[in-house]
UniProtKB/TrEMBL annotation:
Superkingdom of source: Bacteria
InterPro entries: AB_hydrolase_1, AB_hydrolase_fold, AB_hydrolase_sf, Hydrolase_4
The protein, known as: Alpha/beta fold hydrolase
GO molecular function annotation: hydrolase activity
Transmembrane segments: none
Keywords, in A-Z order: Hydrolase
A family per Pfam: Hydrolase_4
Keyword Hydrolase: yes
Amino acid sequence: MNVEVKRDGLILRGLLETPDTDEYDIAILMHGFTGNLGYQKTDLLEQVAKKLHEQGIATIRFDFNGHGKSDGQFQDMTVLNEIADGSAILTFTRNLPHVRKIYLIGHSQGGVVASMLAGYYPEYISKLALLAPAATLKEDAQKGDLQGTAYNPNQIPDTLPIKKGLMVGGFYLRTAQTLPIYEVAKQYTGPVCLIHGDADTVVNKKASERYHQVYQNSELHIVEGGSHRFEYKARKQALQAVTDFFKNSN
């Protein structure tokens, strides 16, 4: 069913899918930079959700502000306000009837958001899965590189044009330079599943390897030949790793 959550005057639009049972565990899925909740059958998050449904796990996934069908301008989006989006979605999910355990799953920048959200709300999150988490966005911002678009990191522009005709706001770039990604993430001490492709040209697998170092209870899966979106054969391996991680509700 379609659901809406309001955050600071913006309406975030999403999709809630639940099993026909009295109680269920639920996973909050978070998409990446310029992405959406997954409207096509070939989309990564749509396929993750389908695999979880086969295990009797409910899912809720939203478009972040400035993305997809949610309110807001892409130019105003930052990692910080996506964390605020995540907080509002988590509160909404916690108040749903019949929910037992809550899981977080994030891809790319959504992985950064999920990791930090779990660090801020560790008591509410039972398990966390990060797929190609884009924690390198901080060092990229410090160097003045946004997925191949260069800028002066010491003279940050008010706006930066990128692919798809989109404009990134300067505040996104400024805040990215100082995000306490790993410092916040490590406050979460529950089970973590890290999945990264060794052929990812968008986010180097060193991001997941560092997460693996700072987490107390993590497993790391490096998918051979896996791209940033785990295309082709790598998609099956990534989906299997996610499924296996959540199959047991311990």
